[in-house]
Automatic annotation (TrEMBL):
InterPro entries: Amidohydro-rel, Metal-dep_hydrolase_composite, Metal_Hydrolase, MTA/SAH_deaminase. Signal peptide: none annotated. It comes from Nonomuraea helvata. This is Amidohydrolase family protein. Residues 56-387 form the Amidohydrolase-related domain.
Length: 444
């Protein structure tokens, strides 16, 4: 029997040009699909009515670059540079992290994302020395009910060297399409130096790939123009998500656009850790629709409001003329940034047909943001309020495929259980890896 939910009376910002923005509008959900976006729908046949008055109703946010397992390292690298991070975190951690730590980090990170209105995440799962680590991460994603592109990687190659035939067979087995996965899709997260076997495997399995590309990381590895090199080897492939690209040339960004690839920008982390300048403005100039990612909560915030504001302020600052008397005419708008965080992200994940906008026929992934709170009222321009003023505290209700993960401001998770999990994981990592990479267990 069809389950019907009516989301009533919100200010709908659909991010679909054909649907537009509709004040005082209803959304009818049938099972996991959006059936209608219209004012005045009849509530009589609805099994459940969600009162969305005094809220902006948005498509769920899509995070296109996030290492969920690293949630267990929250805040431990806030001052660190990328070069320093490579030495401290990647030096010892791959040998300390157990499958239960991957489970804990992924579960905590996915619930954190849902709490913030992120309904889809590209999980760049790059620590998987064993099958058990990967299965633990996938199990955690399933338990939270988030939509995810699980991009499997093992960039540290701890026990099973990346690129080896043994690794390839294991990835084949892991990523073999699974009929029962309603919310998960699968892809590959490449490790440097991007061997041809990686690309061949992604093509063979017909799954998307993602990689860190063109990043400044002085102290860890020399700068390289990865995209030019890949292009010279004929390896650029449609649907690939290139993360950061902070030192990519304009010609490299154009190569991504021309090959049907996508750019993922993690503006907060890139600026704080010294990856280089976020490429929002330059990517737009080359015809790319950027998407946004939190990357690592060991160094930065895990919500999309922070990413949107970092992206907006940095990209606008990039276009301020050097001449203080020259007029300032920024092209980028708050709505553009909201598009990066929704439709842009969905396109990058290869999920543009099913999420990223409130379009009849797409999955019912939606978020309501309260506009009657102290930091969001009065909401003269709802898009402006979402991008400039709203925060996680104003995220009221979050649906993924029509299923509530947050309702009336309350996350539908076992919070005491998550606290225990976080405390145990921090204690284990502290024991095995020491102060440099793990939170003190006493801090939970
Ligand atoms: Zn990353």
């Amino acid at each position: 029997m069809t389950h019907r939910i009516l989301v009533r009376g919100g200010h709908v910002v659909s991010m679909d040009d054909a649907v537009g923005d509709r004040p005082g509008c209803d959304i009818l959900i049938e099972d996991d699909l959006i059936a209608a976006v219209e004012p005045g729908l009849d509530p009589a046949g609805a099994d459940e009515v969600i009162d969305a008055r005094d809220t902006v109703v948005l498509p769920g946010f899509v995070d296109t670059h996030r290492h969920l397992w690293m949630t267990v390292l929250r805040g431990t690298q806030a001052d660190e540079t990328l070069g320093g991070y490579q030495q401290t975190v990647q030096g010892s951690l791959p040998f300390a992290v157990q499958p239960q730590d991957v489970y804990a980090g992924t579960l905590l990170g996915a619930w954190e994302a849902l709490n913030a209105g992120i309904t889809t995440v590209l999980d760049y799962a790059h620590l998987n020395p064993t099958l058990e680590h990967a299965e633990a991460g996938i199990r955690a994603l399933r338990e939270t009910g988030i939509r995810a592109l699980y991009a499997h990687g093992s960039v540290f190659g701890v026990r099973r060297p990346w690129g080896s035939p043994e690794q390839a067979e294991y990835v084949r087995e892991l990523l073999r399409p699974r009929q029962d996965d309603r919310l998960l899709t699968f892809g590959i997260a490449f490790g440097a130096p991007y061997g041809e076997s990686d690309w061949a495997l992604a093509a063979e399995l017909d799954v998307p790939a993602t990689l860190h590309a063109c990043v400044r990381s002085a102290g860890a590895w020399p700068a390289s123009h990865t995209i030019e090199e890949l292009n010279a080897r004929g390896l650029l492939r449609a649907g690939t998500v290139y993360s950061h690209c902070t030192i990519a040339t304009d010609a490299e960004l154009k190569l991504i656009a021309d090959s049907g690839g996508h750019v993922s920008v993690s503006p907060y982390v890139e600026m704080v850790m010294g990856h280089g300048r976020p490429v929002i403005a330059r990517a737009l100039a080359q015809g790319l629709l950027p998407s946004l990612g939190a990357d690592v909560v060991s160094s930065g915030p895990g919500d999309m409001f922070s990413q949107m504001r970092a992206a907006f302020s940095q990209a606008r600052a990039e276009t301020v003329p050097d001449d203080p008397d020259a007029p300032y005419r920024p092209g980028l708008t708050a709505r553009d940034v909201l598009r990066f965080a929704t439709a842009g992200g969905a396109a990058a994940c290869g999920l543009g047909d099913i999420t990223g906008s409130l379009t009849p026929g797409k999955r019912a992934d939606l978020v309501t943001v309260r506009t009657d709170q102290i930091n969001t009222m009065p909401a003269g321009d709802p898009v402006g309020v979402v991008v400039a003023n709203a925060d996680v505290s104003t995220v009221d209700t979050v649906l993924v495929g029509g299923v509530a993960r947050k309702r009336d401001g309350r996350l539908l998770a076992d919070l005491p259980g998550l606290r225990d999990l976080a405390r145990d994981a921090a204690a284990r990592l502290h024991r095995h890896a020491g102060n440099s990479v793990a939170a003190h267990p006493g801090k939970g």
